């Protein structure tokens, strides 16, 4: 969570700095409008994106004839066994969310009250159609302002025709271009992501760009620039309207006056737009969460391990040994029918028998192994498990419940259970991505199996001795069907 907050603030700060240094002084107001709105949404969503990086290749393991746990491992081996954190110094998990909810509710309530005040201002007021909008004539003396398709102005000033056409044209531009939608959208973002103070600067910058757009609409007609600037100065001291409204006298007069006389250079504008187009994907990649696919620990792979043990006396397997090999497999095979009505073979010998069969299989020549393959029998042995601790950054990233589902020592646990451990307490991890139907009913995208140092040591010998797997594809020939085992 802390990482997400930092990334949001950093991203929004970078994009706001790009606007002020590259875009603000250019007369490309429509582009700037959508850039500012997209920048806010981008800074809040980009840190939530997860990118899967290429898998890390496991180092080749060399085994010896007698299994001995290495005396020197990673730094994780020397760490103390995991234990629960001191609850007396840990804040309840719900406290930060409670604080967030209270502040967000208060800000949303304030925004709702402001919108309600704007709607109430219409009740009891005379409405006059004006081009594509409606004029709301209020009995109170108030500044001219707009809210969506409504322009609010004092009824007395309207009846006496005391409102200049430039002001009506200015507010008409606000209404037609739906600037109120931008303002409401910004207020909602501020309420829901109030922990990012830079959104307040975005709100100020967006409103200034609205004024640029409205001023540009006025000056696109026959209005003289100097006359309009004098009119703008005459209304400088007028009182502002409601916070959600777009008002003619919005207090950025100096910048607005300077922008009216700014010249346009299309080549410079194109170059700056190109910089923005290149910056966004680079920034998205830098902020996205990186997950590294691990080669599954239990991945079945017929990988032969380097041996330094003494070579057996018999270099090849005799015909009698081959017959005994198949007989042993048949004795430990059960014939079962699956849910689809097909027949499968389940081979379940003891670990000792599995190791003996694999030792015979290793001594077979190519012709003898072809006989095994013809019966669709496969034998493979897993690598010896090796301790490998994650980095602190990767460990903190695993606490995100929207990305990772956690299995700790073979049991499914909530992500918050990792708060009881240090990164060095984890000495083995296996990450796999979920696809298709496996994603249904799950809030996470990756399944992560973790092993603690204590559990690794406890199960090490059993896992080393039980590394051989024998499987047979589910086809059925009555003439070659094995006898039903136990």
Automatic annotation (TrEMBL):
The keyword Aminoacyl-tRNA synthetase does not apply. Residues 165-259 form the Peptidase M56 domain. It holds the Pfam family Peptidase_M56. It comes from the Bacteria. Keywords: Membrane, Transmembrane, Transmembrane helix. The chain crosses the membrane at residues 6-22, 34-51. InterPro entries: Beta-lactam_resp_regulator, Peptidase_M56. PANTHER family: POSSIBLE SENSOR-TRANSDUCER PROTEIN BLAR, SLR0241 PROTEIN. This is Peptidase M56 domain-containing protein.
